[in-house]
Amino acid sequence: MPLEMLLLAVLLGWPGLAPAQSLRDEELDGLLRTFASFTRWPVSALRADQEPLLICLQGGATLRSQQPVAPQGAGMTVRRVVASDDLRRCHLLFVPASEQQRLRDSVSSVSGAPVLIVSDAAGALKEGVTIEVAAGMDRVQFEVNLGAAQRNHLVISSKLLRVARRVVHTASNP
């Protein structure tokens, strides 16, 4: 089974999360790997021969692995970012619910840049993120904003869209 399909299977069957729980490091790690695997960036954004895919984490978010599996065999690097960092250098930006007050500014700062924005903050999709994650009773669920993906020149695989709880097409940007 290809790695992408294995990661998708793990995502679909994630057990044991209560609705109000936050994502644990290993869950976040798997989700971000999966989302990266099912996203296509413009060729100009992924200079695979020069730089790995850069996953940026705001706030206190951490990943279990600092070397997650990358799409199409490219390398991946994980880095914590602060407000003064240039977020447009990120390929994937995770904004945790604990950083919800900075969500709108983060989305605005990368608007039009090829950055996949993921958040577990309630209502993040309306703020312009590409993927909003929520812990459900028996699995992690997510919603996708295709308008936000298009605004940032990203293509989300139809395989990922099929398992999303909801897909919206709004291109609104705060």
- Topology-level CATH name: Rossmann fold
Can you summarize the main beta sheet?
Answer: 7 strands, mixed
The total count of helices amounts to 5
Helix content: 10-25%
Strand content: 15-25%
CATH level 1 class label: Alpha Beta
Amino-to-carboxy terminus distance: 41 Å
Which CATH architecture? Answer: 3-Layer(aba) Sandwich
Please provide the ordered H/E string of secondary-structure elements: HHEEEEHEEEHEHE
- Number of extended strands: 9
Structural class: alpha/beta
**Cross-sheet strand order for the largest sheet:** 3-2-4-5-6-7-9
Q: What do you see in this structure?
A:
The protein has a single domain (3-168), classed as Rossmann fold (3-Layer(aba) Sandwich). Helix content is 25%, strand content 22%. The protein has five helices and nine strands; from the N terminus they run H-H-E-E-E-E-H-E-E-E-H-E-H-E. Helix 1 (3-12) crosses helix 2. The radius of gyration is 15 Å and the shape is globular. Residues 5-11, 13-20 and 66-73 have low confidence and may be disordered.
